[in-house]
Design brief:
The chain is mostly helical. It has a domain at 8-78. The chain contains 3 helices and 2 strands; from the N terminus they run H-H-H-E-E. The relative contact order is 0.09.
Amino acid sequence: MWTGAVDAAALRANLAALPGFGEMKIKALGSVLAKRFGVEAARDLVPWHPTLGDVDSHAALADYQAAKRARKAERSRTGAPLGARRGSPRRPADGTGSVQGGRAREN
């Protein structure tokens, strides 16, 4: 699956072909493959946020889970979407426009 992938695009396609694998699972598994198993093709799949790939002990798992609960609680409190990064600009849903100063603008 990952040993035959020549790059991140090939690995992403291999993982996406698995039943039940969407973008979140691809990023999570990519993180584990890159950080725990040293799979080079997976490096570009690693998301910006902490994932299970960062967990290397029971204490690290407890810390990861506590931080994730805190982020979800904060987003729930503020009404921000769960997938949104704090302070990150959003692009228009139709893919047009550019992002500047934290706001989407029409080109």
